[in-house]
Each structure stands twice: as C-alpha cells, then as structure tokens.
C-alpha cells in the first residue's frame, strides 16, 4: 500500500508531537509515526519538574499523553508503527514502515530522539532483562528491599538513583570521575539520601550471578598505582550514562556529526537534504531537554510549511 502526505513526522517525543500540533494547525494533515516507544524517552522517566506550565511537576507519561491528544485535536494522524527505510534521493521522499507499507512525503521531519547507551560489556547482554536495565522507572519495582547500582554521574543517574532509593534497600552510584556532573540540586538530593552510596573513581568491569545479576566487579582508580578491584553485591544494575541519537537509517542521506547527531543549518531545522528537517534530541547534542525538543518541533513544522509554500509545484 502506498500513502501520500505533505508532512511525515518520524518519532513521537515532545519534538514530534509539537511538530504535529503546528503542522496540523497549518492545515497540512501531518502523519506521525510513533515508533517503538510512543511518547519517547519521557515515558520512561518519573516526575518532570522543569517543564514550564506545570508548577507542581507532572508525570512524563501524562505529559506526553497530553501532547499526543493536542496533536490529534489539530488533525494529525498518528500511526503506531516504525519507519524502517528511507529514500531521500528524490522528492517526494519514499519511506517504508515495519509492515512494508510505503509512504510518499513532500517533506519529512525527523524527530527520532535518542536511546540509552550501554557500557559495551558482554555481561550486559548476558544479563539483559535478568538484572540489567536502562530504565529505573520501568524495572525498579522488581528490586524492592534489594541492593542495586546505577552507573553514571549525570542528572539522569541522580534521578534514577533517587527513584530507586525509595524502593531498594541500598543504591550504589558507580561514577568514573571524582565528582558528579549533575546539576547542584540533583547532587544535593543524592548526597542527602542515607541509602545512596556514591562510589567515585570506579569503573565496572563485569557482572556475575547464577540465574541473574548477583554482583558487579569494579575497579577503583583504574590504570593508576592505586588501582584495586572489588565486588559489590547487587541484584539490579542500571545504566544511566547518556544516550545515542537514533539516526542510523538516515545515514546514507543525512549529514551527521561524529556522534551521530543530525547536523542542521544555523538556527534552523534544515538538514543537508532540502525538504527534510530535524528536531529534538536526534539533532541536539548539547541541551537535550524536553522544552528544547518541543521548541525545535515547532520550528521544524514552520520550516516545512514555508518549504511547501515556496515549492508549491510539488503538490
Ligand atoms: P550526561 O551526558 O550528562 O551524563 C552521563 C554520565 O555518564 C556522566 O557522569 C558520564 O561520566 C557517565 N558516563 C558516560 N559514559 C560512561 C562510561 N562508558 N562509563 C562510565 N560512566 C560513563 O547524560 P544524562 O543522561 O545524565 O543527561 C543528559 C542531559 O539531560 C543533560 O543535559 C542533563 O542535564 C539533562 N537531564 C536533565 C534532567 C533534569 O533537569 N531533571 C534529568 C535528566 C537529564 P563523565 O562525567 O565522566 O563523562
């Protein structure tokens, strides 16, 4: 089956839904492909305290449900499917979804976000779903009154550790430097928690356990004369070491930076391919905030609308 659209939005975080709201209000009847994780990364977090308009905070899932409802209200069509292949070599652009259906789009807004990074240890694969996780809110419940570890020293790691500290008996934070990179407010919160212990200057070299994770092997002061190896007993091992942009399928056509983030032109959302725009975390190595993603989603829809007006012969 081949469908046609004026604006195809790939991805459904704050960027994708906001692009849907703006393109819908511009009467462009956008189609949003939600992908594997409808609502994006915010559906895996707990409370969001820094999105303006929610002075008391809001649950990530609730906020994304509200974004989605608003996009639907203005005429966006939302598909619970994933785009798996694109051909941006000519217009209209041809994209294929995970059921093999084809969609021809006059413009495309890429808002595919980013996914959690892993350390790259073989044991992470071995124990995936058996004690290894990159989402405390999804899996924390299984570790009530047990010991867990969170890897990372940024805001995400602090947030995950704080959440887990309300369920688990003890939470270790495994931090490779001698300081936390997180914001002051988060640092103070984790430092004040009695059942969080921060292990500075530590790297994980392996996990062990019979039928699931029972412990982690750590190295303190790696590659220095003070180096020492020790074990911690844990049932859950949570990764919070940042994210990788979901841009793999666009690589043949779209210019990416060394980390895989989409390069946009100046203060616009234009990519190197005319008619293809990028918004949100997939094009933002610097800020990676929901409010910024929503802002670029708005800009991408406006850029697409202008492009369609200037290239009216396309429709
Ligand atoms: P960050 O990139 O900020 O932090 C990643 C952390 O993981 C760092 O401590 C880093 O260590 C560590 N790390 C990276 N790779 C490895 C590795 N291979 N082994 C061990 N440790 C590693 O990512 P976050 O996801 O925490 O945050 C991303 C952005 O989102 C930030 O801008 C953050 O402020 C924001 N954010 C804001 C929130 C809020 O305001 N409530 C909540 C969550 C995120 P090192 O410091 O040594 O590089």
Q: Identify the bound ligands.
A: NADPH dihydro-nicotinamide-adenine-dinucleotide phosphate
CA-atom Rg in angstroms: 21 Å
Q: Runs with pLDDT <50, length 5+?
A: none
User: Main beta sheet: strand number and arrangement?
Assistant: 7 strands, mixed
Please tally the helical runs, counting DSSP H or I stretches of 4 or more residues: 7
Structural class from helices and strands? alpha/beta
Terminal CA distance:
20 Å
Question: Mean pLDDT across all residues, rounded?
Answer: 95
Helical content band: 10-25%
Shape: elongated
* Number of beta-strand segments: 19
Explained architecture:
This protein has 315 residues and is an alpha/beta fold. Helix content is 24%, strand content 27%. The protein has helices spanning 14-25, 60-73, 122-126, 136-139, 155-165, 184-192, 290-310; strands spanning 2-10, 31-33, 47-48, 58-59, 77-79, 83-87, 93-97, 102-110, 114-116, 132-133, 147-151, 170-174, 196-199, 202-208, 215-220, 228-233, 236-239, 243-245, 276-278. Helix 1 runs parallel beside helix 2 (60-73), helix 1 (14-25) packs parallel to helix 7 and helix 5 runs parallel beside helix 6. The longest helix is centred in the C-terminal third of the chain and has 21 residues, at 290-310. It starts with a strand and ends in a 5-residue tail after the last helix. The mean pLDDT is 95.
Summary?
By secondary structure, this protein is α/β, with parallel strands linked by helices. Helix content is 24%, strand content 27%.
């Amino acid at each position: 089956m081949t469908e046609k659209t004026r604006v195809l939005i790939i991805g459904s975080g704050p960027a994708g839904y906001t692009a849907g709201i703006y393109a819908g209000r511009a009467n462009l009847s956008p189609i949003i492909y939600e992908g594997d994780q409808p609502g994006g990364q915010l559906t895996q977090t707990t409370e969001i305290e820094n999105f303006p308009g929610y002075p008391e905070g809001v649950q990530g899932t609730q906020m994304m449900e509200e974004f989605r409802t608003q996009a639907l209200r203005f005429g966006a069509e939302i598909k619970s499917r994933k785009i798996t292949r694109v051909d941006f070599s000519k217009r209209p652009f041809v994209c294929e979804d995970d059921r093999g259906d084809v969609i021809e789009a006059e413009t495309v807004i890429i808002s595919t976000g980013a996914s959690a990074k892993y350390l790259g240890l073989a044991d992470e694969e071995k124990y995936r779903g058996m004690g290894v996780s990159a989402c405390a809110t999804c899996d924390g419940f299984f570790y009530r009154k047990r010991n867990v570890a969170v890897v990372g020293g940024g805001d995400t790691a602090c947030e995950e550790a704080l959440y887990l500290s309300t369920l688990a008996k003890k939470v270790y934070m495994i931090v490779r430097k001698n300081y936390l990179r997180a914001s002051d407010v988060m640092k103070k919160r984790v430092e004040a928690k009695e059942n969080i212990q921060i292990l500075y200057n530590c790297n994980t070299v392996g996990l062990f356990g019979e039928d699931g994770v029972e412990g982690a092997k750590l190295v303190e002061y790696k590659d220095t004369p003070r180096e020492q190896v020790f074990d911690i007993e844990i049932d859950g091992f949570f990764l919070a070491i940042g994210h990788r942009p979901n841009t793999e399928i666009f690589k043949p056509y779209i210019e990416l930076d060394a980390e895989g983030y989409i390069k946009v032109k100046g203060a616009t959302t234009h990519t190197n391919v005319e008619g293809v725009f990028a918004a949100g975390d997939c094009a933002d190595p610097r800020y990676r905030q929901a409010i910024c993603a929503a802002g670029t989603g708005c800009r991408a829809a406006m850029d697409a609308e202008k492009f369609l007006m200037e290239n009216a012969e396309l429709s």
